[in-house]
Amino acid sequence: MLLGQAESGKSTLQKQFQLFYASQTLDHERPSWRPVVYFNVIKAVRMILDELDSDIVTSSHSDSSSEVSSTIRIGSPIYAGDLRTKLLPLIAIEDTLASNLNGGVSIAGGRPGVFVRSGWQALVTPKRSYELPDLRKPSFDLKTTAMASVTNLAAKTLAGLVEEIEDLWQHPAIRRLLRLHKLRLDEAAPFFLDNIRRLAEPDYMPTTDDILNVRLQTLGVAEHRYDIVLGGVHYNWLMYDVGGARGMRHAWVPYFDDATAIIFLAPMSAFDQYLEEDGRTNRIHDSLQLFTAICSNKLLKGAHLVLLLNKADLLKKKLEAGIKVRKYITSFGDRRNNYEEVSEYFRAHFIQIHRRKDNWQRALYAHFTSMIDIEATQSIIGNVGEAVIRSHIAQTGLA
Ligand SMILES: Nc1nc2c(ncn2[C@@H]2O[C@H](COP(=O)(O)OP(=O)(O)OP(=O)(O)O)[C@@H](O)[C@H]2O)c(=O)[nH]1
Ligand SMILES: [Mg+2]
């Protein structure tokens, strides 16, 4: 089971497993990621425009960021009158894309995110990923036709607006907001906006990097199967990728009884972020609490524990940009604000929880990871996968 808070990287790790054990299925799914990439781009553009709006509105009350505000005030007529109007047709596609990706499920309360259910690819690809293509059947049903047409519309609209998106993304006012951390985008937004020219090509097909960077929230519990060969023996590995938001965690429990291994992901870069579900809870604190609950859960006493301290790349970037851990986590105190010190500090906290709360004295495998780094993650997956299977075999005497 892959566990951890929302946006910790569980589904990204799942994709890395897929790349490692069943890369042909990932190839087959490639076209189905196109609408998701477009959705990520459009969402980023819309969030930038929203942010500009709210900053213009609040700028007259703001004193601390007068430099930024005045720049935007001066710049605002451009956005309001020109860029915004031009980008409107693109923004208009966001909701249609979202509801198609949700399979028609709209989520109550505000603007929909995009959620993925088990087997969602069936909605956007002609076949389930693990089936071989059957050329006798028509390749699209009604849902996929709707999906295909909104995807094509998004592609065409995007292609016509590349210049405008680049202007918006490169605009000095936006750069300054980003530098001052006043503009909060999804973490993958810079990656997609930097690559906008490539994504807007008419024959665009998502690369593995694109697929790993995409943000698609998991809804409920999604099951994935892998055939793993170890020492000539075939193992059928079932992997469960869960939704990590607080409201979804109750859905994990029915799976605990049968879990042989837990891979817990904790994003280290989240020290300056708060839960979307609860704006007062620091995301590192939430991860520590969750890890405490997992370590001490009786239902999981027979499960192997793997801890992945993830988003090492983003943590490095934040520290290099001068963001101070102490400002968000006071107990960090006067320690040096560099990667070595900070990552070790977080690791020590998780290890301490394991030591105190794991009554069964299980071994804890801990790694620093960056799930978007293919080479590094692939070698960790090999090790983790084998270690888990081997110790499980030893424990159950199945060898
Ligand atoms: N830079 C960077 N981005 C990452 C890393 N791991 C995951 N991401 C990105 O973080 C975002 C969220 O990752 P997901 O894998 O969707 O998170 P999740 O844990 O499945 O989230 P839920 O499904 O909501 O529980 C995606 O855009 C990923 O590409 C990492 O190590 N470094
Ligand atoms: Mg997920």
Q: What would you note in describing this structure?
A:
By secondary structure, the chain is an alpha/beta fold. It has 2 domains: about 160 residues, GI Alpha 1, domain 2-like (Orthogonal Bundle); about 140 residues, P-loop containing nucleotide triphosphate hydrolases (Rossmann fold, 3-Layer(aba) Sandwich), CATH 3.40.50.300. About 50% of the residues lie in helices and about 10% in strands. It is built from 17 helices and 8 strands. The strands form 3 sheets. Strands 1-6-7-8 form a 4-stranded parallel sheet, with helices on both faces. Strands 2-3 form a two-stranded parallel sheet. β4 and β5 form a beta hairpin. The longest helix has 26 residues. The chain starts with a strand and ends with a helix. The relative contact order is 0.14. The structure holds guanosine-5'-triphosphate and magnesium ion.
Layout of secondary structure:
Layout lengths: L1 E2 L6 H12 L1 H7 L4 H25 L7 H26 L2 H8 L13 E2 L4 H4 L17 H19 L1 H9 L1 H8 L9 H6 L1 H4 L8 H6 L3 E2 L2 E10 L2 E10 L18 E7 L15 H14 L7 E7 L1 H9 L4 H4 L10 H19 L6 E5 L5 H23 L3
Parallel strand pairs: 1-6, 2-3, 6-7, 7-8
Antiparallel strand pairs: 4-5
Helix pairs in contact: 1-2, 1-17, 3-4, 3-5, 3-7, 4-8, 5-7, 13-16
GO cellular component, one term: heterotrimeric G-protein complex
Keywords: GTP-binding, Magnesium, Metal-binding, Nucleotide-binding, Transducer
InterPro entries: Gprotein_alpha_su, GproteinA_insert, P-loop_NTPase
